[in-house]
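> forwarded from #structure-qc
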């Protein structure tokens, strides 16, 4: 899988742009998908962001498992980050972001005021992998739909400054992936939630990964959506995929059943789910 080219030229360019702009900003909003918080963190960004103050924004919490979202917020706070879970499609709680930013910048703001700057500007850069909702978060913060958004990776093509208020400015950036995932599971999680273009992975592999996860952690969702029985849940994931393919009317087109499962999960039709737990290794997950 590492051979597949999902790190096209525009991502290398986006990375370079972040590197250039990082010096101009006071803090960083790192947006992750609450369904895959750790897998949706780009390890390259740690290096780029270095010691800039950072707010971890766990977005799409409306789609994620609430108990696990709370556990993840705690996990990041324990690591010394400011962290907040939000649903950027609704403005609720979003104002906590400028509040947190002001708190993190308190010393710097005080220094600027002491130098006679009456209303110091806070500049924040929004970073993260594709499709986690960076542009949607920024549109909410500026209360206008300026940044283009869309439910596929790679919507934002260029950096763009947006003004949230007289003293809060935000930089939208294109989503950046990294050239090689540490494990296959990370790739599967990102494909299942739509952070990587669908064309990069085989649907049946991604669907099978999703099915196995739901069998292990959210069996009730499968029972409700596809009338899966307790006996079915004892089958190997592959056998259940074959069975579902038939029962859902796709005959032997396993890829179409896989596609359906991925689609339903992304739409929220299988309920709220989170694909990883704090402290769990990929080996545990596999
Ligand atoms: N359910 C749900 N959907 C969201 C949320 N935030 C964003 N979305 C949707 O997720 C999709 C991606 O949002 P964008 O804001 O375009 O994502 P992005 O991170 O800017 O993506 P790139 O520009 O491709 O890197 C869009 O269809 C949004 O409507 C959220 O909190 N909940
Ligand atoms: Mg965007």
């Amino acid at each position: 899988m590492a051979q597949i080219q999902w790190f096209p030229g525009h991502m290398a360019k986006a990375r370079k742009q972040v590197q250039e702009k990082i010096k101009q900003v006071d803090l960083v909003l790192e947006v992750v998908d609450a369904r895959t918080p750790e897998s949706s963190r780009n390890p390259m960004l740690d290096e780029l962001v270095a010691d800039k103050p950072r707010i971890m924004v766990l977005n799409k919490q409306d789609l994620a498992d609430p108990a696990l979202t709370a556990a993840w917020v705690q996990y990041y706070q324990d690591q010394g980050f400011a962290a907040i879970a939000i649903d950027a499609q609704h403005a609720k709680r979003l104002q906590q972001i400028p509040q947190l930013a002001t708190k993190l910048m308190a010393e710097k703001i005080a220094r600027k005021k002491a130098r006679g700057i009456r209303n110091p500007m806070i500049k924040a850069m929004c970073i993260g992998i594709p499709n986690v909702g960076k542009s949607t978060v920024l549109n909410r913060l500026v209360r206008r739909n300026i940044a283009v958004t869309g439910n596929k990776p790679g919507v934002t093509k260029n950096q763009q400054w947006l003004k949230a208020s007289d003293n809060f400015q935000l930089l939208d950036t294109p989503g950046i992936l990294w050239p090689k995932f540490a494990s296959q599971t990370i790739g599967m999680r990102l494909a299942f939630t739509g952070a990587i273009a669908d064309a990069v992975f085989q649907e049946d592999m991604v669907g099978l990964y999703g099915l196995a996860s739901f069998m292990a952690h959210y069996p009730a969702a499968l029972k409700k959506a596809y009338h899966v029985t307790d006996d079915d849940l004892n089958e190997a994931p592959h056998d259940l995929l074959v069975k579902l393919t038939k029962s859902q009317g796709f005959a032997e087109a396993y890829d179409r059943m896989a596609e359906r499962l991925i689609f339903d999960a992304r739409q929220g039709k299988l309920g709220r789910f989170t694909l990883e737990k704090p402290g769990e290794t990929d080996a545990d997950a596999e």
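QC bot note: The CA atoms of residues 181 and 187 lie 6 Å apart. The chain has two domains: 9-172, 202-276.
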